[in-house]
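Ticket #4471: structure output looks truncated?

Reporter: J.K.
Steps to reproduce: submitted the chain below (341 residues) through the standard prediction queue, then opened the result file.
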Amino acid sequence: MLPLRSFLLTAASLTILGVMAQTPPRIWNIKTVLPTGVTLDVKAFDKAGKQYDVKALENGDTHVMDVKAIDGATMLPIKVLVSTDAFLPVKAIAADGTLLDVKALDANGERLDVKGVAQAGHLYHIKAIGPDRALYGVKAISPTGQMRDIKGVQVDPEEVEAVVQGVKVAAHVKALPHATDSDGDPIWNVKCVQPDGHVLGIKAVDKTGALHDVKAFLSNGDATVLDIKALIQGEQLPVKVLVSGDALSPVKAIGKDGTIYAIKAITADGAKLDVKGASRSGNVYNIKAISANGEQMAVKAISPHGLFYDVKGVKFTADDKEMDLNGAAVRAHVKALPQVE
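Returned output as attached by the reporter:
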């Protein structure tokens, strides 16, 4: 995957990120929450001891928010680093590759380590470590009291997710909605929800016109970021938003040999409706099925117990092309995420 470059918090940088709004992002505070409900500041520190704010940035969507250390007008990415330690280091990375420690500050000003303490599927659980190795949650809290979980997110199953300014990264630190699934259903259905509440099936279509199931899958107990896969010839093929000059970005499944499969919503009379990345908000593409009259309809993952998650295209880099996959230029990864307000 391509490195995530630091960027200036200006209108120009927001354009690079695909956010065309002229207003700056809404800032969420990053705090450690103690069992008593008391919150502690989370800060970044350079080697000289200089302190930097750590914030989450809301750029029009709160499904996947960037977490940054703020150095004046420069936003420094925060990552979970590759390490042989039992708990993985969480650091901010400067443009020259210098690492800044990320710490929680207790009431006495003592610095508590912030680490990636365990992995579940695509996620690293990030905790502040207190006395006797007590683990405290790390959260993003909006000015109006909304909450998001701070997690390390890994898309690639390899140990090294990315290399940022020469630093090997295991996961990207993001603010995510809290998982709402308590049933542990391993496979969810993927559907288009029509305005009347009835649903249409979402299928992958091969060159012969044959239809193949598209499902959402839990990965090793991770109920926050579900994989969207097409089931074709006994294989689970990834579904991605592809790079395109079209106004609406194509959503396709990609075979190991580079074969591209269309993703369609299927009507009762067998008509095939396009499924597209219809718009972008911050790190997220809104995935929609397009009706015959151009209406954009929601695409959801629905659990066997009736829980709904949003199906979105998710980006982790500032570049238009997120990665190449089997010869296909990928713009965003299609995932199912808990719904937000």
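Triage note (M.O.): checked the attachment and the full token line is present. The chain has two domains: 7-176, 187-338.
Status: closed, working as intended.
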